[in-house]
Amino acid sequence: MRTLHRLLPTIRPDFRAIFIIFLLAAELRNATKYLDDSECRNDRTCVYEVSYGDGSYTVGDFVTETITLGSDSVNNVAIGCGHNNEGLFVGAGGLLGLDGGPLSFSSQLNASTFSYCLVDRDSDSASTLEFDSALPPNAITAPLLRNHQLDTFYYLGLTGVSVGGELLPIPESVFQIDESGNGGIIIDSGTAMTRLQTDTYNVLRDAFVKGSKRLPSADNVALFDTCYNLSSTSSVDVPTLSFHFPEGKVLPLPAKNYMMPVDSVGTFCFAFALTSSTLSIIGNVQQKGTRVDFDLGNSCVGFVPNKC
């Protein structure tokens, strides 16, 4: 069992973004071919439109900018300067693309490795992002897979999930990419909750409910169908939950990474959700407090818990 200590989150936007628009260079015009929707005007400027899976979208100028990281600067980085941003962008100064596509920030830096660690929203510390850093020797590693049909995603070699120390009866094929490029599971820092196909989610949820039947239940909240009223206690024991990778490697999750507060009165919900897609996603709630290392050259993802 894991102990869940009840903490209430706060949201503190603590950074701002300033953009300077440059005239269109030849390489920027070439880069527009990688965008979903773009157009270059006669005055040598370009506009873009990008949509996301949750319905959010951004429209604005496609520009080049000098980006400064600490004491280092990188010139001519292609970015979008959004003028019409709708959806789940509240409280954010922007989005930093770290995917496998040619326009991602990591690709434009030609980084062979990068890592991040996402802290809790109520933390006094800041989340961190590093480029070209070595994979820690104590990292729990998993294969980093690529899909020729969707080359922007980072697919993970997940083999199973356990609850309460018991491996669930989920076929490994659920997490694998088929010959048509469908299926598989990706790891994504931009998606909040882990999303699983219906049959897989039901097996996971039912196992968790069975192991937490002593907890007082609460009404469903939004996309969450398994919620608990923890208003009368400061800590509770919940079943352990772990991700399993090849060669017997196991990543146990902290309780706060799968029991999520959804209001200010003590309602917590099981922080997994359904997807109608054949593609499953490991979201950022399940990654909190863990340094996630992407070794692109060696096709490997490493996880180091409690290393922010």
Secondary structure: number of strands: 24
Please bin the fraction of helical residues: under 10%
The CATH class of the largest domain: Mainly Beta
How many helices? The count is 3
Number of domains: 2
What low-confidence regions span 5 or more consecutive residues with pLDDT below 50? Answer: 5-29
Structural class: mainly beta
Instruction: Give the strand content.
Output: 35-45%
Shape, per Cα inertia axes: globular
Under CATH, the homologous superfamily of the largest domain reads: Acid Proteases
Walkthrough of the structure:
Belongs to the peptidase A1 family. This is Protein ASPARTIC PROTEASE IN GUARD CELL 2. Keywords: Hydrolase, Protease, Signal. It comes from Hibiscus syriacus (Rose of Sharon). The protein folds into two domains: 26-95, no CATH class; 131-305, Acid Proteases (Cathepsin D, subunit A, domain 1), CATH 2.40.70. With 308 residues, it is mainly beta. Strand 14 (217-218) and strand 15 form a beta hairpin. The chain has helices at 26-31, 105-108, 198-211, and strands at residues 2-5, 37-40, 46-51, 57-69, 72-86, 113-117, 128-131, 140-147, 150-156, 160-163, 166-167, 185-187, 194-196, 217-218, 227-229, 235-238, 241-245, 249-252, 259-261, 267-270, 272-274, 280-282, 290-295, 300-305. The longest helix is centred in the middle third of the chain and has 14 residues, at 198-211. The chain is built from three helices and 24 strands. The relative contact order is 0.18. The strands form seven sheets. A six-stranded antiparallel beta sheet has the order 7-6-23-24-8-9, with no helix packed on it. Strands 2-3-4-5 form a four-stranded antiparallel beta sheet.
